[in-house]
Amino acid sequence: MSIQIFILSKLMEDNNYPYKLKKQISEPIPLDRLAGLTESKLYYHFDSLAKKGLIESIEIIKEENRPDKQVFAITAKGQEELPKMIYKLFENADSISDMVVGLANIKYVERQKVVEILEKKLTNIKQRWEEVSGYEEKVEVDKAQEKFSEFMLGYVSTKAEHTIYWLEELIKRVKQGEI
Predict the structure, then answer these.
(1) Where is the signal peptide (predicted)?
(2) Of 100, 81, 76, 80, whose CA–CA distance to 90 is shortest?
(3) Which of 36, 89, 106, 149 is the most exposed place for a label (fewest CB within 10 A)?
(4) Contact 56, 72 (CB under 8 A)
(5) In which band, very low, low, confident or very high, does the pLDDT at 32 lie, cut at 50, 70 and 90?
(6) Which of 1.10.560.10, 1.10.10.10, 2.60.120.260, 3.30.930.10 is the CATH number of 2-104?
(7) Cα–Cα distance measured from residue 96 to residue 100, given in angstroms and rounded to the nearest whole number
């Protein structure tokens, strides 16, 4: 879904073709390689969006000794679906790193609705952490497993605290319009 949100958001700005988008995300930092985005995946998503009626081919640029370039534009249906896809991305995200494309395109959605989604996510994480942290007192650990138990408790508690801190920070920055 992130790739399709990326494509639709780029087409909101201007008509474009797949190869040009691939080039934009590969320079100067090779984000395409870091995200595992191959040219064939990008073309697949363009095709998928076109089949759904969210984008349409508007022009074919022919150049001598070069492959044809099919230029796409976002449709009215695509403009309508983009915010829904961004909200869904936030709702389904397991971590902030899963939200990057949504955060980069937050201008296409209502900030308050994003804040509500994030606050609900934060409440759920805090409730789960409270529940899990209560187990420590209920579980008896034998001497042989004591070091393992300490390690796991340290790992899980640090991860939970880290997640809560950064989600609270994200909510604050979205509310303030910094992101």
Answers:
(1) none
(2) 100
(3) 36
(4) yes
(5) low
(6) 1.10.10.10
(7) 7
